[in-house]
Amino acid sequence: MIGYVCIGTNDLAASAAFYDALLATVGGKRHWETERFIAWHNAPTSPMLIMIKPLDGQPATVGNGTMVALAVGSTAMVDAIHAKALALGGKDEGAPGNRGENFYAAYFRDLEGNKLAAFHTG
Length: 122
Prior knowledge:
This protein has helices at 12-24, 75-87, and strands at residues 4-8, 29-33, 37-41, 48-52, 67-71, 91-98, 103-109, 115-121. It is an alpha/beta fold.
């Protein structure tokens, strides 16, 4: 049902470097880009993650209570993407671990403060 998720950025070049390296951890590649946004996905029919400069020209801000969750293939992949985010300058928002029955997740913020999670179920 979800086709794409947009996250605002004030520095597209820095966001591009962060997400190129981070999403490569889970097979993500650039799919589409313009001077205003970059979109990544890991399969032709998978949802895209888009970093975008706001159309209204106002600064991008972090949404309180907003989070993007990346579904990954294993708990080891959750660990890897969390570690990669921190190595790239992201901030820890919750170390990898079990968050209930059959739900393993880690939480972090990107360079602009956007909150993301990586999770595996099963």
